[in-house]
Amino acid sequence: MSLYSPSSPHFHADNSVTQVMLKVLVALVPGIALYVVFFGFGIIFNILLAVITALGCEAIMLKLRKRPVLPFLYDGSALVTAVLLAISIPSIAPWWIIFIGVAFAIVIAKHLYGGLGYNPFNPAMVGYAMLLISYPKEMTNWALTISNTNNYLGPWDSLLVFLKDKHGFDGISGATPLDYLKTQLNLDMTIAEAMQHSSFGLLGGSGFEWISLAFLAGGIWLIKQKIINWHIPVSFLASLFIIALIFYFIDSDRYASPVFHIISGASILGAFFIATDPVSAATTVRGRIIYGAGIGVLIYVIRTWGGYPDAVAFAVLLMNMCAPTIDYYTKPKPYGH
């Protein structure tokens, strides 16, 4: 009697790269929908141009590298990079900002390192950091929420702003709550005084707090779908919460509450959708926890004492550099060793 066993692997993965990327995009939909509700339709134009630019640059680079085009276009990785970068850019940014940022992310941060699976840095965050350093005015000029302005940007108005025709819309923009709070603290105002401004909501930035909760729901769904592991998001948010809580107890007039840090800015988006990038993040279990905790601490340090009010992109990129070393020192022992 002979026992036949096929060659390994014996189990087929439930998710292909395309399925994983599509589920990530689906998880982003609630947050994007609320973004439209609070800040207008500009985000839709950002996403459309970002997707077109990403697919075009992806096809050109694949041709230049003599790789098959359609299989890589269908894997969805370029789409995810485009959407993540588009929703990180102000909805009233001019079209060329989106084009430059996405092209840089796909061509420089992804393909010049060898393409999907070889890039050491998160491409979307590389594109965002480049834009923030090169064009700080355009990247820090955000649309006001519907509660702060009567000029809600519908589809047509958003298109005019997108094409850089801002005639009649001078009163629609301002700093983000994180940026405004940092500026007022530098002017010796207290947290309580600064948060009387209309850009703040119940617990965080007006509008941003609800968008963050929508991204939280999408992130939890990704964990339930086993697209991402819980280690990085939980350690990321826990470390940010703990360090913010410590300084809040030390001086609540100078340091914002931990809840404010969690639901304002891109903290939740970063925890579930950016830091969990399987290529540029740590891969071991202990490594993921250290990696996520490091991002949370760096975000607080840069927000509080650095020059950038949000800091998610820079914190992620700094920990991307540390990921190989973290994996090296946290790899599990071989069975039986």
List the helices and strands and how they pair.
Elements: H1 17-39, H2 42-64, H3 69-74, H4 77-88, H5 95-110, H6 123-134, H7 136-139, E1 142-143, H8 155-162, E2 173-174, H9 177-186, H10 191-194, H11 208-224, H12 231-250, H13 258-263, H14 267-274, H15 285-305, H16 312-330
Offer a concise description of the structure.
By secondary structure, the chain is mainly α.
Order the strands across the largest sheet as they lie in space: 1-2
The chain-level structural class is mainly alpha
Low-confidence stretches: none
Arithmetic mean of pLDDT: 85
Record keyword descriptors for this entry.
62% helix, 337 residues, mainly alpha
Q: Please, could you describe this protein's structure?
A:
The protein is an all-alpha fold and 337 residues long. It is built from 16 helices and two strands. A two-stranded antiparallel sheet has the order 1-2.
